[in-house]
Amino acid sequence: MHGAGANAAKNQAEDVKALGGRAIIATGDLINLNGISGVIFWGNLTQKRDIAQALAARTGAILPLLTGLPNAGYVLEEQHLCVDITAAGGNAALLAKSAPDT
C-alpha cells in the first residue's frame, strides 16, 4: 500500500485484507522493498509516475500499480502443484508406489 496520506493507505490495507490478502503500508524505497507483489496508490499523477518508475526499476517480476479498488485476482496468492509422471511411463499408480512414506 502506498497511499496519498495515512487514511488512504489504511483504507487500501483494509480493502486488501477484506479480500483475504496481506497488506503492508510502504513508506520508503519501493525499488528495494522485498516481499511485495504489487502496489496500490490513490493520488496525484506525479506521484503515480514516480511509483511506476520505481516499480519498473526493480529486478525480477513486473509488478502492477493499481490505482483503483483491488480485487481478489490481485490480492490472493495462487499456488500450483505439478507432478511429472513421465518417469513412470505415465502410470501414476506406479509412481505413487515408489514414493517414500511420509
What is the element layout, followed by pairings?
Blueprint: H1 6-18, E1 39-40, H2 45-57, E2 65-66, H3 72-75, H4 92-98
Parallel strand pairs: 1-2
Explain briefly what this protein structure is.
The chain has 102 residues and is mainly alpha-helical. The protein has four helices and two strands; from the N terminus they run αβαβαα. Strands 1-2 form a two-stranded parallel ribbon.
Q: How would you describe the overall organization of this protein?
A:
The protein has 102 residues and is mostly helical. The protein has one domain. Helix content is 36%, strand content 4%. It has four helices and two strands; from the N terminus they run αβαβαα. The longest helix has 13 residues, at 6-18. The model has no long low-confidence stretch (mean pLDDT 80).
Helix content: 25-40%
- The SSE string, one letter per element, is HEHEHH
Question: Span from first to last CA?
Answer: 40 Å
Q: Work out the radius of gyration.
A: 20 Å
**Mean pLDDT over the full residue set:** 80
Biggest β-sheet description: 2 strands, parallel
Main sheet: strand order? 1-2
Q: How many β-strands, per DSSP?
A: 2
Could you name the ranges where pLDDT drops below 50 across 5 or more consecutive residues?
A: none
Portion in beta strands: under 5%
Q: Can you tell me the overall shape?
A: elongated
Number of H/I helices:
4
Into how many domains do the coordinates divide? 1
The class by helix and strand makeup works out as mainly alpha
